[in-house]
Amino acid sequence: MTTTLRPTEPLQHSADGALSRAYRICVNSRPVGQLALRTDPRLGSEVGEVVGLRIDEQDRSRGRGTVALLAAEEIFRDWRCRRVEVTVPADSAAGLRLAEALGYTETSRRLRKCLPATRPALPPGTTARRMTEAEFGPWLAHEKETYTRSWTERGLSPERARAVCEHDHAHAFTDGPRTRGHRLWVLEHEGTVVGTLWLADRETDVYVMDVETLPEHRGRGHGRSLMRLAEIDGLSEGHRAVELNVVCANTPALRLYESLGYRQETRRFTKDLR
User: Fold this and answer.
1) What's the whole-model pTM score?
2) DSSP secondary structure string, 110-174?
C-alpha cells in the first residue's frame, strides 16, 4: 500500500508573499489523515512550517506520519525553503518520536502556568515600576540586537533576521512604551535596576515577550522575582495564565520555569533541507 499526500485546495499565494496548502494523507485512495504546509511572509521562502499533522487513530503506528512528513519536506524543497519547522504537542509521544527519528532538532518550548488564586508578593527590598520614555530607547536597541541574533542562530540570513526584527518591533510598539496591550516593567532591588520585563496580552493569557536580569545582577533570585511580577501583572489584567517561549539551549531558564510550576504546552523542532 502506498501513502501519498493529495491536495485539498490549490496552492495559496497571499498578498504578502506567503504560500500555503492543505493536504489529505491517503493510503491508496483511502484518507487516513491530514496536514497543512505554509511559509511565514516575514521569513520569505527560507522556512517552511508543518501545521496540523494528524493521523486517524486506527492508522497510527504504521509509518503513515513518517511518509507524510518526508513528502512534506519534498514539497518545501520545491518551494525553495532551506529549513522546515514542526510544532509538536508536549504530550504527543508519537509525534516527539517521529520528529527525533527523522533528524529534527528541538529548538524551543512553549510553557504555560495557570495564575494562582492569590496575588504573589515580591521579596523584601524589591519593587517594580513601569519603564520610562527615557529608558525605552536604550532598552529597545538592546532588545532588537538580541532578537536579531536569536534569528540568525535559528538559521536566518543576517539581512532577513534584521528585517524580521524591524517588522516585529514596529508592529509591537506602534505607540512607544505605552502601546495598548503591551507593558514594560523595570525591576529594582534596594533602589538599583536589576531587570526588565516585557508583557503582552494574548486573549485569556499574559505572554512574556522578553525577560532579562541584568548580567551583573544574575544568580541572586531576580529572575524568579521577574516571573512573580508577570503573575502580578496577569492577575491585575484579569488573565488566567502566563505563557512564554524558551529556547532549549537556555538550561538555567528551563529549570527556573519548571521550579515555578510552568508546564510544557508544545515543543518546536527544526531541520535543514539539503
Assistant:
1) 0.90
2) EEEEEPPSS---PPTTEEEEEPPHHHHHHHHHHHHHHHHHHHHHTT--HHHHHHHHHHHHHHH-T
165 shares a domain with 217 = yes
Domain of 65, CATH number, reads 3.40.630.30
Strands (E) located in 47-181: 47-55, 83-89, 105-114, 126-130
Domain count, the chain: 2
Using the 3D structure, point to which of 81, 104, 133 is the last residue of a domain.
81
The answer on 124 and 230 residing in a single domain is yes
Angle value at C-alpha 157, between 154 and 162, nearest 5 degrees: 90
Tally Cβ neighbours within 10 Å of residue 153.
12
Q: pLDDT tens for residues 234-251?
A: 999 999 999 999 999 899
Same domain, 120 and 223: yes
Host domain of residue 9: 3-81
What would the pLDDT profile of 116-161 be if each residue is shown by its tens digit? 999 999 999 999 999 999 999 999 999 999 999 998 887 788 898 9
Residue 10 has pLDDT above 70, yes or no: yes
Cross-strand bridge partners of residue 188: 127, 193
